[in-house]
Design a protein that fits this description.
Elements lengths: L5 H4 L14 E7 L3 H11 L3 E2 L2 E8 L2 H10 L5 E4 L8 H12 L6 E6 L7 H7 L4 E4 L5 H45 L3 H51 L5 H28 L7 E3 L1 H18 L3 E6 L7 E3 L1 H25 L8 E9 L2 E8 L6 H4 L19 H12 L3 E7 L2 E7 L1
Parallel strand pairs: 1-3, 1-4, 4-5, 5-6, 8-10
Antiparallel strand pairs: 2-3, 7-9, 10-11, 11-13, 12-13
Length: about 425
């Protein structure tokens, strides 16, 4: 897939809103300065983007902004001041939206008149925002460019979210179809074989939603980078700094980001392409490919990864590389969920949580240990962890088939072993091949 094939993912983008011209982009302005609201209205009230007008919602404190956002979570962009009723009011509102409401789609731009209270580098690193501007630099034209760029990003993320929801519906529909097929089979052997196929397909489809989330996290930074390049081009033109050299540099920067996004799609496609025949492959590369797919999610959740390859450099195993990658991702997702659950229970802090992966050779062959520091699990659960449809998670957080399918792939399809045990306050999955 070339960089420009990314446009195919959003092929319907220009027709999405045409059916309802009365719809509008909702922009929430949170600022205790009346003049800021007035200027924003004057700059944006007549703007139309993708056949939709802009509706500006006004809040004069962080608390008022929270109340509005609770009622209207279809807001596309928030132009947010930092210092209002308190020095950190704006930053508190960001935490409320991203962490309490779990809304990662709305674009948030800090627009501050007192940058000393919220230094740009620290805020960009510590808070999930999409841009940082001082009020003095946002002229009419700059504000227009900023808003359109973020509305475009919001539209892209919203479509990814819609795709994820469609895929979840597809998982449910496919599950019902496969269960019906399973109930119609006559022989016990056919029933068992069909059940295996159903669980494998269901596990793979269930992973699609998580992969969509992974892509969203992978794309967040390059989308912002491309948006900044576009804004800089216009600024360069306005200030007579636009040269051929400037243009070439901007194009190169944009193409670098687009190629990165294209490679993310390729990783996604390769993961879901089934391996039809056995082959020799390097488990080290398969582990690295799996980590590249979900690394952004782990980083976003402040989960550290410690991967050590102590095996011989040319270690090869025979099997199905994409299915093996699915096993690694299933186990890593299980470890991630265990760490997040431990944080909710208070046994780990927000910044604690590590997954350790170690690969080595012994007299049995190649061994891969995957451990997390979320604490041990009770023996009665440990003994059933590979049972189909057994899960301790809430119904919307897991199907209970991921680890069952992982064990089937390793032991039935690849002739190895998949084991789990408590080790000194942690849970360790061991793959022997």
């Amino acid at each position: 897939m070339s960089a420009f094939d990314i446009e195919e993912i959003f092929a319907e983008e220009n027709s999405v809103d045409s059916s309802n011209k009365s719809e509008s982009w909702k922009i929430l302005v949170v600022d205790d300065d009346e003049d800021v609201h007035t200027v924003t209205h004057l700059s944006l009230d007549d703007v139309v983007f993708k056949k939709k007008s802009i509706e500006i919602l006004d809040a004069y404190s962080a608390q008022e902004g929270m109340n509005i956002f609770r009622e209207q979570q279809d807001i596309a962009l928030i132009l947010l001041d930092v210092v209002m009723e308190a020095y950190s009011s704006g930053l508190d509102l960001i935490k409320f939206i991203r962490e309490d409401l779990k809304n990662n789609i709305v674009r948030i731009v800090l627009r501050t008149g007192q940058p000393g209270y919220a230094p740009e580098k620290k805020v960009i690193l510590d808070y999930e925002i999409d841009d940082y501007r001082t009020k003095t630099e946002l002229t009419h034209e700059h504000l227009f460019t900023l808003v359109i760029s973020n509305l475009r990003s919001y539209n892209a993320f919203k479509r990814l979210d819609e795709y994820g929801r469609r895929l979840e519906d597809m998982v449910e529909e496919k599950t019902k179809e496969l269960k019906k097929i399973n109930s119609d089979l006559q022989s016990e052997k056919e029933k068992r074989m069909e059940k295996e196929m159903m669980l494998m397909q269901q596990s793979r489809l269930a992973s699609v939603g998580e992969m969509i989330a992974a892509i969203a996290h992978q794309w967040r930074q390059p989308l912002n980078a491309v948006g900044l390049v576009i804004q800089d081009l216009k600024d360069a033109y306005v200030h007579n700094e636009f040269t051929a050299e400037y243009l070439y540099k901007a194009v190169n920067k944009s193409m670098t980001q687009l190629n990165y996004m294209s490679n993310t799609i390729n990783d996604f496609k390769n993961f879901f392409k089934p391996s039809k025949t056995e082959s020799l492959f390097k488990p080290d590369q398969a582990i690295k490919d799996s980590l590249s797919i979900i690394s952004a999610q782990l980083k976003n959740n402040f989960i550290k990864i410690d991967y050590q390859n102590k095996a011989m450099k040319e270690t090869l195993i025979r099997g199905y590389p994409s299915e093996f990658a699915q096993v690694i991702i299933n186990i890593l997702n299980n470890a991630r969920d265990a760490i997040l659950d431990a944080r909710e229970k208070g046994t780990l802090s927000r910044n604690e949580g590590e997954i350790a992966i170690e690969m080595y050779n012994n007299d049995k062959g190649t061994v891969i240990d995957i451990s997390d520091d979320a604490g041990e699990i009770p023996d009665q659960i440990l003994n059933r962890i590979f049972d189909p449809y057994f899960t301790t998670k809430e119904s919307h957080k897991g199907t209970g088939i991921g680890l069952y399918v992982a064990k089937t792939i390793i032991e039935t399809n690849m002739g190895g072993k998949l084991l789990v045990e408590n080790r000194e306050g942690s849970v360790t999955f061991t793959i022997e091949l």
